[in-house]
C-alpha cells in the first residue's frame, strides 16, 4: 500500500512493538524518501533509533513529553540502597517485576511446576516473561513452552500457538499479554473448544471487557491474576462533573476532554482547526452515565492519588516538625532546606503497596480472592481466600505437573531432553531408601549395620547371623556332640570295668583310656563353636580343638608304635618291646601334645582370635564370626594335626600284615584314611561356605573324625567284651598267631 501510494508523509499512531515488523520490511524492500511522523509510542524508542534504520526512517518527527532536569533527583537515585530500604517496593521492583513476582508467588502457592507461557511480541510481554522466569527458576517451576502473539500477527501464527497449546500436556498457562494482543488467540481457543486449562492473567487483561463475557467463560472462566486494588474516590465525582470548557478557557486538557465526551470543541479552544473541527454551540452536556464518571472502582487513578497524598504528608511532617511514628522533631525545617533524602525517609514510613487477585466468574464478575503486598520485614505476603475461587477445572485446585511426585521408596531420574520438572520415579536400590516424597534425586544409603525394608522407605537393622543353640542346625549338632560324648564315656566305663580282661590289656589299657578321655573332649569341643562369638569363646574354640585333637592323634600314634614294637619283639634277638614301655608311650603322647600347646600359646599371645562382624558376604545380614586372628597360626594347628595323622597312617600301613587277632594296624590304617579324607575335604568346604555354615562345616569335620576314631578302634572291642565275651580270652587272642607259628 505504501509503495503504490504517492504520499510522501506518513503518520504512524502505533506502539513501537507493533510497528517494528513493518519497519524491518520497509528497510528490507529499501523504501526511502518518506517523511515519517511518529507518536510518543515510538519516536524515541531504541530499536528504530539504530544506524541501520536511519536509511528509511532518518528524520522522523514526532511529539514527546519534554525533557526537564530535576536538580535534586540525581543524589536521591545515587543514594538508593535496597538493603537499607527494605520496605520500599519502588526500590526492589518497578511495575512489571512486581507483577512477575506476584505471579511467581501465586504459582508456588498452588504447587504448579509445569506451566505454559504466552508473551506479547513487545517489551511488555518479553520483559514480563523474562522477569517471571527469573523469579520461578529457583522454585523448581518449568515453563513447557513460550508462545509469542501480537494483534497484527497473521492467523497462521495464531494457529501455531493454539496448536502448541493443544499438543502440550500443561494445564496452567500464564499470559503476559495486553488484552488487544491476546483477543485473537482467545477467539481461536473458543472456536476450537479448548477447555480444561487454568489461565493466569497479567494485569493487562484480567479485568478487560472483551474476555469478560459469557461466551468466553467456557474456555477462560476461573482465570486468576493480579490487578491494582479497586478503590472508590467519591469526592472525585463532583470534580469530574464540574469540568466546563467555558470556565477554563486556557486548558488544552479540558478542551480535549470536552471533545471526547460531547464530540465537539468549544469555540474558544486554541486548537480549533477551521473546516475540520466541529464547533460546540454551548448547550452540549456530557453523558454522565459514561464509564469515565464512575469513581467507585478506580485502580491507577487511586494509585496516583495515593502517591500524591503520600508526598504531601511527608512534606507536611518535615515542615511541621513531625517525625515518623508521631514523634516531634527537635528542629523544624524551612521548605528551602528540605532535602530529598529527608522526604524519602518520611515517605517510606507511610508508603504501602498492595494488589488484588481477581478471577472471572459467571455473569461475568471479577471477584477479589486475596492480595499481595510487601510486609514490614521486607518480604512479601500472598494471602488467598481459596473458598472464593471458582476454578475452570471444577472444584479441585488444578494440578500442573509434568510428572507426579515420586512416592516413598523411589528417586527422581531426569528424562533426557526434557526440563527438570519431567522425570521418572526409579525404585531405590537395595540398601538405600527415600523417606520423603518427590525431593530426592539420589536415594539415601543405609548405614552399614542397616538395610532397606521392602518398601525402601526406611532402614531396618540387619539380621545378625551366627550358629545358635536354638536353631535346627545348632540343635542337631549339639545333640550329635553330646551323643558322641555319652557313647565315648560309656566306652570308657566299659574299658575301666573290664580293664583286667585280655582284650583290654592287649590294646594297651593306659593309652586306650587316655584316648577315650581325649575323644570325650573332642566331642565336647564343638559346643564352644555354637552360640554368639565372644572374645573368650573365640580363643577357646580353636585352641581346645587343636590341643584335644593333637592329644587324640598322639594316643593313636602311641598305640600304632606299640603294635609295631610288639610284633617286632616276637622275632629272635629283638628286645625293642623292652625299650618301649609305658613310660616311653606316655612320653610320646605328652611330647607330641606339648608341641601343639606351644603353637597355641604363641597364637594367643601374638594374634589371638577375636569376634568379628562381616558385612560383605550378605547384604541383609551381619555375620558374626570368630576371626582366627592369624591364618598362619590356624593352618599351623591344622598342619601339625595332619602331620601326626600322616605319620600314624604310614606306621599302621607298614604293620598291616601282622596276625589278625593281635593286630590293630589295619583298624588304625582304616581310621587314619577316614580322618585324612575328612580333613582334606574340610579345607575347600570351610573356605567356600558362607556365614554360619563355615562353623557348621568345621563342627562336622570334628564330629566325623571323633566318631571315626571311636567306631573304628573301640566298637569292635566293645562288641567282643559285651556281646561275645567267650572271645575275650588269651587263647583266642593268641590262637591265630599259634597257627602261623606251627
Automatic annotation (TrEMBL):
Cell membrane recorded as keyword: yes
Cellular compartments annotated: Cell membrane
Annotated GO CC locations: plasma membrane
Top-rank taxon: Eukaryota
Taxon lineage: Eukaryota, Metazoa, Chordata, Craniata, Vertebrata
Transmembrane segments: 473-498, 510-531, 543-567, 588-606, 633-655, 667-687, 699-723
Annotated membrane topology: Multi-pass membrane protein
InterPro entries assigned to the protein according to its UniProt record, in alphabetical order: ANF_lig-bd_rcpt, GPCR_3, GPCR_3_9-Cys_dom, GPCR_3_9-Cys_sf, GPCR_3_C, GPCR_3_Ca_sens_rcpt-rel, Peripla_BP_I
Stretches assigned to the G-protein coupled receptors family 3 profile domain: 473-737
Protein known as: G-protein coupled receptors family 3 profile domain-containing protein
Keyword terms, alphabetized: Cell membrane, G-protein coupled receptor, Glycoprotein, Membrane, Receptor, Signal, Transducer, Transmembrane, Transmembrane helix
Molecular function GO terms recorded: G protein-coupled receptor activity
Protein family (similarity comment): Belongs to the G-protein coupled receptor 3 family.
Location (main, coarse): membrane
SUPFAM superfamilies from the UniProt entry: Periplasmic binding protein-like I
Pfam families named in the record: 7tm_3, ANF_receptor, NCD3G
Amino acid at each position: 500500500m505504501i509503495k503504490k501510494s504517492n504520499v510522501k508523509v506518513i503518520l504512524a499512531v502505533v506502539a513501537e512493538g507493533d510497528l517494528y515488523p513493518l519497519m524491518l520490511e520497509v528497510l528490507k524492500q529499501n523504501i526511502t524518501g518518506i517523511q515519517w511522523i511518529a507518536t510518543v509510542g515510538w519516536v524515541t524508542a531504541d530499536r528504530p533509533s539504530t544506524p541501520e534504520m536511519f536509511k528509511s526512517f532518518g528524520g522522523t518527527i514526532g511529539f514527546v513529553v519534554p525533557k526537564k532536569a530535576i536538580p535534586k533527583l540525581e543524589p536521591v537515585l545515587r543514594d538508593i540502597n535496597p538493603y537499607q530500604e527494605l520496605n520500599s517496593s519502588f526500590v526492589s521492583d518497578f511495575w512489571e517485576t512486581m507483577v512477575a513476582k506476584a505471579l511467581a508467588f501465586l504459582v508456588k502457592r498452588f504447587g504448579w511446576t509445569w506451566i505454559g507461557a504466552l508473551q506479547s511480541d513487545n517489551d511488555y510481554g518479553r520483559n514480563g516473561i523474562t522477569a517471571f522466569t527469573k523469579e520461578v527458576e529457583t522454585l523448581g517451576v518449568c515453563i513447557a513452552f513460550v508462545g509469542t502473539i501480537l494483534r497484527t500477527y497473521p492467523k497462521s501464527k495464531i494457529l501455531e500457538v493454539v496448536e502448541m497449546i493443544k499438543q502440550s500436556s500443561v494445564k496452567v498457562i500464564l499470559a503476559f499479554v495486553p488484552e488487544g494482543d491476546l483477543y485473537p488467540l482467545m477467539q481461536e481457543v473458543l472456536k476450537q473448544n479448548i477447555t480444561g486449562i487454568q489461565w493466569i492473567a497479567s494485569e493487562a487483561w484480567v479485568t478487560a471487557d472483551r474476555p469478560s463475557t459469557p461466551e468466553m467463560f467456557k474456555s477462560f472462566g476461573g482465570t486468576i491474576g493480579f490487578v491494582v486494588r479497586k478503590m472508590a474516590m467519591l469526592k472525585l465525582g463532583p470534580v469530574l462533573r464540574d469540568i466546563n470548557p467555558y470556565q477554563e478557557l486556557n486548558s488544552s486538557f479540558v478542551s480535549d476532554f470536552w471533545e471526547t465526551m460531547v464530540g465537539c470543541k468549544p469555540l474558544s479552544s486554541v486548537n480549533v482547526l477551521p473546516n475540520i473541527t466541529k464547533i460546540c454551540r454551548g448547550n452540549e452536556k456530557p453523558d454522565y452515565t459514561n464509564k469515565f464518571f464512575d469513581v467507585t472502582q478506580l485502580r491507577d487513578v487511586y494509585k496516583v492519588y495515593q502517591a500524591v497524598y503520600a508526598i504531601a504528608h511527608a512534606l507536611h511532617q518535615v515542615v511541621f516538625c513531625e517525625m515518623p511514628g508521631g514523634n516531634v522533631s527537635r528542629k523544624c525545617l524551612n521548605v528551602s532546606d528540605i532535602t530529598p533524602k529527608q522526604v524519602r525517609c518520611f515517605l517510606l514510613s507511610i508508603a504501602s503497596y498492595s494488589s488484588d487477585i481477581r478471577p472471572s466468574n459467571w455473569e461475568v464478575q471479577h471477584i477479589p480472592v486475596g492480595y499481595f503486598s510487601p510486609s514490614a520485614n521486607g518480604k512479601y505476603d500472598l494471602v488467598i481466600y481459596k473458598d472464593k475461587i471458582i476454578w475452570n477445572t471444577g472444584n479441585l485446585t488444578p494440578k500442573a505437573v509434568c510428572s507426579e511426585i515420586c512416592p516413598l521408596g523411589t528417586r527422581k531420574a531426569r528424562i533426557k531432553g526434557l526440563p527438570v520438572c519431567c522425570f521418572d520415579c526409579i525404585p531405590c536400590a537395595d540398601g538405600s531408601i527415600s523417606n520423603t516424597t518427590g525431593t530426592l534425586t539420589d536415594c539415601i544409603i543405609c548405614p552399614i549395620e542397616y538395610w532397606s525394608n521392602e518398601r525402601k522407605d526406611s532402614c531396618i537393622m540387619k539380621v545378625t547371623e551366627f550358629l545358635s543353640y536354638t536353631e535346627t542346625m545348632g540343635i542337631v549338632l549339639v545333640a550329635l556332640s553330646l551323643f558322641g560324648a555319652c557313647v565315648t564315656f560309656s566306652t570308657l566305663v566299659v574299658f575301666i570295668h573290664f580293664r583286667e580282661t585280655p582284650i583290654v590289656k592287649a590294646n594297651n589299657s593306659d593309652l586306650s583310656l587316655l584316648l577315650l578321655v581325649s575323644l570325650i573332649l573332642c566331642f565336647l569341643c564343638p559346643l564352644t563353636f555354637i552360640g554368639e562369638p565372644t572374645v573368650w569363646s573365640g580363643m577357646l574354640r580353636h585352641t581346645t580343638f587343636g590341643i584335644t585333637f593333637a592329644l587324640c592323634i598322639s594316643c593313636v600314634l602311641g598305640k600304632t608304635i606299640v603294635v609295631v614294637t610288639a610284633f617286632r619283639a616276637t622275632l629272635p634277638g629283638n628286645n625293642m618291646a623292652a625299650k618301649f614301655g609305658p613310660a616311653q608311650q606316655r612320653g610320646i603322647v605328652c611330647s607330641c601334645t606339648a608341641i601343639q600347646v606351644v603353637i597355641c600359646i604363641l597364637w594367643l599371645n601374638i594374634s589371638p582370635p577375636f569376634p568379628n562382624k562381616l558385612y560383605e558376604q550378605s547384604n541383609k545380614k551381619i555375620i558374626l564370626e570368630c576371626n582366627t586372628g592369624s591364618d598362619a597360626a590356624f593352618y599351623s594347628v591344622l598342619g601339625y594335626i595332619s602331620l601326626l595323622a600322616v605319620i600314624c597312617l604310614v606306621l599302621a600301613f607298614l604293620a598291616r600284615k601282622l596276625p589278625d587277632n593281635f593286630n590293630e594296624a589295619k583298624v588304625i590304617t582304616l581310621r587314619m584314611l577316614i580322618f585324612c579324607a575328612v580333613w582334606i575335604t574340610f579345607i575347600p568346604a570351610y573356605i567356600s561356605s558362607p556365614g554360619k555354615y563355615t562353623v557348621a562345616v568345621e563342627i562336622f569335620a570334628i564330629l566325623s573324625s571323633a566318631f571315626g576314631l571311636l567306631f573304628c578302634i573301640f566298637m569292635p572291642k566293645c562288641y567282643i567284651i559285651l556281646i561275645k565275651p567267650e572271645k575275650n580270652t588269651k587263647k583266642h587272642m593268641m590262637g591265630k598267631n599259634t597257627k602261623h607259628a606251627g
